[in-house]
């Protein structure tokens, strides 16, 4: 499988990729190169037209990046896979994607505790702990139920069979209006700013540029 990383584009022409060949995460700053997003998207549209894929989508796109793609796309992105959890709720992006008919897919819905890119903030959030305790659910289930109730597609990862079962057990109960309201007021902080994609010699010189100010 070939992975294309398209993180941002500040001007009309530039987005970012990694030099072809083998690479490991975290990527090396010297390997960051610009790409022409318009022609990459055209090639992806061709893949769909040829029946090589059912649908095409993007990941980590801001509203601004999506707008740029939509300005020339014949096929709009089906999905935008982005970090989303109670501590980084993506309200602006979700509204934009709703209006454009682009499905949001929530990655790191538990904050990705224990990974290279993760944070403990979600799994250690006092409010989420209180809600979980009051409902007799795990904190992870509260996060997943919350994301599900926002109408997004939820992408959680576990290698543990019991936790996989637990993560699926979120469909026959719901959060109260009061609980949802409290979660919606949690202070926001992006868990994965992706500073490794910022470089003085690369296409993006600051996090503001990388995320088009949406950070
Ligand atoms: N497009 C992108 O840029 C991007 C970036 C990051 C991630 N992703 C994708 O999103 C997927 C999920 O996100 P993620 O792995 O970053 O974060 P996540 O799903 O929020 O968190 C995964 C971590 O939570 C643990 N966990 C899972 N279920 C749990 C539960 N019920 N209770 C307690 N801990 C639990 C897992 O450990 P165990 O395995 O031990 O259960 C793992 O350490 C990834 O597999 C990846 O494919 C995409």
From TrEMBL:
Alphabetized InterPro entries for the sequence: AKR, Aldo/ket_reductase_CS, NAD(P)_OxRdtase_dom_sf, NADP_OxRdtase_dom
Q: Where is the NADP-dependent oxidoreductase domain?
A: 37-184
| A Pfam cross-reference name | Aldo_ket_red
Top-level taxon of origin: Eukaryota
Q: Which GO terms describe its molecular function?
A: oxidoreductase activity
Q: Which PROSITE patterns match?
A: ALDOKETO_REDUCTASE_2, ALDOKETO_REDUCTASE_3
Recorded protein name is: NADP-dependent oxidoreductase domain-containing protein
Organism equals: Gossypium barbadense
Q: What is the lineage of its organism?
A: Eukaryota, Viridiplantae, Streptophyta, Embryophyta, Tracheophyta
């Amino acid at each position: 499988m070939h992975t294309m990383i398209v993180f941002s584009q500040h001007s009309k022409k530039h987005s970012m990729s990694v030099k072809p060949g083998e690479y490991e995460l975290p990527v090396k700053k010297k390997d960051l190169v610009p790409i022409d997003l318009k022609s990459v998207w055209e090639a992806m549209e061709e893949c769909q037209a040829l029946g090589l894929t059912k649908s095409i989508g993007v990941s980590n796109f801001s509203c601004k990046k999506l707008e740029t793609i939509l300005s020339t796309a014949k096929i709009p992105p089906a999905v935008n896979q982005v970090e989303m959890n109670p501590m980084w709720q993506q309200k602006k992006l979700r509204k934009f994607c709703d209006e454009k008919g682009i499905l949001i897919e929530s990655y790191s819905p538990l904050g990705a505790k224990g990974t290279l890119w993760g944070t403990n903030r979600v799994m250690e959030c006092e409010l989420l702990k209180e809600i979980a305790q009051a409902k007799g659910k795990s904190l992870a289930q509260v996060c997943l139920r919350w994301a599900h109730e926002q109408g997004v597609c939820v992408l959680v990862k576990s290698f543990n069979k019991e936790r996989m079962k637990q993560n699926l057990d979120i469909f026959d109960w719901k959060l109260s209006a009061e609980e949802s309201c409290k979660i919606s007021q949690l202070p926001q902080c992006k868990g994965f700013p992706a500073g490794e994609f910022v470089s003085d010699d690369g296409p993006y010189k600051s996090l503001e540029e990388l995320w088009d100010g949406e950070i």
